[in-house]
Amino acid sequence: MDFFSEVLQDPWKIVAAFALALLVHSLLTFIKTPKNAPPFYREQPYIPWLGSLVQFATGPREFLQRAAKAKGNCFTIQLFGQQMTFLSGSEGHQHFFRAKEKSFDIREAYAMTVITFGPGVCYDCPQSKMAQQFAFFKDGLSDARFIEYMELVQDEVATFFDQEWGDEGEADLLQSLSDLYTLTSSRCLLGEEIKKRWKSSGMAEHYLALDHSFVPILFFFPSLPNPHKNKCINARKLFTKIFQEVIDERKEKMKADSDYKPPQDFLQVLMEAKYRDGKSLTITEITGILVGILLGGQHTSNVTGTWLMSHLLKEKEWLEKVMEEQDSIFKDKEGKLHPATLSFEEVQKMPIFDQVLSETLRLHPPFFQLSRAVKEASTFGDYVIPEGHIVNISPGAAHRLPELWGENAEDFNPSHFTAEAKKEHKPYSWIPFGGGMHQCGGRKFAWNSLKVSLTWLLRNYELEFVGKGAEELPKEDYTTMVVAPTSSHTRVKYRRRKNA
Ligand code: HEM
């Protein structure tokens, strides 16, 4: 009988083998940790190898804030045997965002995304190819492009609420916004032809498989089998087939009719894009990138919209200010609200709404934590962050630090973002969209579409939250890909405004 068969026959031997493995792991970690490594933070109960999992899983923000209070702006915790170093505060964030890719590697930290986006896309590319792919976003998601998208977004918003909500009723706001932003993104980014086929071709159903494929444990063990892998492969096969059909149709039309102007959507941007060596993107790359932006934009936007409404409808002082601003911009001479399409310039004239949106993203940044794999030891102040650590920053925890946001950092106060107040912000203190070379490529698209859709909703409907806990603000749900408001707190009752 070999050693392993013998061990498996006796439960005590299994326990002993496990204890031995933990001891070896702890010893190796101790030996590998240099003297000037960041201070280690732990609380009881501390479970070997799992480390601070209990505290982190049950209240990550509070846990990181306690750690920062005890150890300062650079400390290490352990999760699943992995040393996780957190940097916080203005200097900590600067160090994180300004590091070179060869020191702090985003690709290894987000290796799990290959299941969803497919091979050879975004984080599954050599560094220079990844940078070129992300540069395509800059063109496709810029303000200049959004001017083209304005009419499409507003048309989708009005049609969606007419068809799905009607004049009065009840709905789950989080779900409604999620459905809405899939429609606006698919119309502007994937194009009209895809949007038409979205449900009938089965894309909508397969999209759900891609959406469910982010399993948090795979962040630590990207090589573990992902139960959604086959569904994702099938979904991408279908998406690839349909994107190819649409691309061929557009090319045919261009050949047949020299006056034909293809739609100016993100699909077209990718069809025309070229790498530095002159090569076009493959259909697999186009598919993966489009899936990536659809997923990247949808949940981040719907949770932001729901948090914003939760604050406004419960803290009426700011709702009144927002409505006054809307009235001053959009009411016509008869006192009726401007009903039709707004221009891009009009949407830029909403300083109060901008403040409310910025404050919502301060208190509820959708991505709780951003991570990189340390490939080269990196000196921060008196410490050296060793190779092999995962280095992180947490917008979710940092945005409530009194040192950055004052003693009342926990309160909803959009005055944090008046033009005057912004001058006092420390560098990299407001980081819902990240920073540095990987700053969110879709931030302008997200900002504009949130403004267009949420102000439209406020101008056209009276809303109130209903159900158990309707009076309170939702709690944070950390089990989803982005930090969502707890679904028990997202039901609203609505009635169309008389003057709308
Ligand atoms: C409120 C909405 C959004 C928030 C808060 C948000 C936040 C973020 C953050 C924090 C990152 C950086 C991740 C890191 O450094 O590890 C990021 C990256 C990115 N986001 Fe967003 N995002 C939003 C909406 C969108 C939308 C609508 C799109 C596309 C239509 C998008 C596309 C991207 C892309 C392409 C990247 C990767 C950039 C890179 O790595 O170079 N995002 N986003």
Automatic annotation (TrEMBL):
Keywords: Heme, Iron, Metal-binding. InterPro entries: CYP450_sterol_14alpha_dmase (IPR050529), Cyt_P450 (IPR001128), Cyt_P450_E_grp-IV (IPR002403), Cyt_P450_sf (IPR036396). SUPFAM superfamilies: Cytochrome P450. GO terms for molecular function: heme binding; iron ion binding; monooxygenase activity; oxidoreductase activity, acting on paired donors, with incorporation or reduction of molecular oxygen. Its cofactor is heme. Pfam families: p450. Heme binds at residue 440. Belongs to the cytochrome P450 family. This is Cytochrome P450.
